[in-house]
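Morning, I've got a small favour to ask if you have a moment. The fold is given in discrete form, as structure tokens running alongside the sequence. I'd be grateful if you could look everything over and explain what you see. No rush at all, and the record is pasted right below.
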Amino acid sequence: MKIIIDAINIKSEGGGFINLCNILDNFEINKKKYKKILVYMSKDLSKNLPNYKFIVKKTVPKIISINFFFRSFFQYFNLYNKFNSNSIFIVIGGFYFGNTNKVIVFCQNILPFCKDEHKNYSFFNKLKFKIQSSLYLHSFKKSSLTIFMTEESKNIIQKNNFKFESQYMVIPHGFNRIHNIKNNKRNIFDQNNKMKIIYISRLEKYKNHNFLINTIANLIKKNYFIELNLVFPEKKLSYSQIFKILKLNSDYKKFITFKNNISNQNLNIEYQKSHLMVYPSSCESYGIPLIEAYNNGLPIICCDNLVFKEIFNDKVIYYSKNNSNDLEAKIKDLYNNPSKLNKYIENIKSKPLINDWKYVFEQYEKALEKIK
């Protein structure tokens, strides 16, 4: 069986890339079933894919991997017309324009369908979201099977008057063993030291960095001793670039630290040094940093979107979306009551989130069986 994976839409070593690498690791374990897998992705990222004999890496020019229109053009005219009907396509976070009858589309990007988020974007971006949503719906309709990471992600698509005529499955993201509270030591907070808050996310408007920064700034004005550590997966962001993009003045340097291009091992250290994760992103299909932080024993305050509630239920603290006063009150409560933080850590130890990659791969195998 030949499998073609379109991973051109993956732009960084974030959740989608980690998911793909671990799935390929499990393909290696079961290589008797899967003789050859072609993976299309950017040259920079392909270097870090597993190097197994059955994997054929097909790299694309950088301009194609980073530009939505060039990427779509390449996929339509070059990629999807190359293979016969015996091949299985797996499309990760992108669009499908072909005509084969064995296609799995992996839905990662729900931003084009979250219309309340679009108001903060330019006319050009709003137009792009409109085009993207149409192309995604076309891809779901053409697919043999659509995969979502949460039930709520699927519900968001259906709210756009779309009915799934093909099959769909909900397959959660797996967790790396490195992010496990049993393997780590926690940094315990007391009011004699700074409360260290961490937020890990790309620089996007819906990630709401400025909302978080301004909330922390207000708390500091009220004599709360807090340090905010912003971690970005982007490799080439400089300190000055971040300040320029977020439109921050030099006063913010007193309480904000920035880090980027951090390995999984070092990211684990950042979790251990922190007392609390605050995650203000308001549009997510999953939220992998939240899972990693939680499994590191880190208490979490996050936006009350339904995706997070599906994953965590009552295991984390929620604040009302875009409500700075509510977020401020939640942080103050934990700051003023360190014992509550410790209680959350103990609760995490007793209720870890467990989705190992073996289980996730078994679900993907079921997906492949469905469309053979």
Q: What stands out?
A: DSSP finds 14 helices and 13 strands in the chain. The chain has a mean pLDDT of 85. The longest helix spans residues 123-142. The longest strand covers residues 36-42.
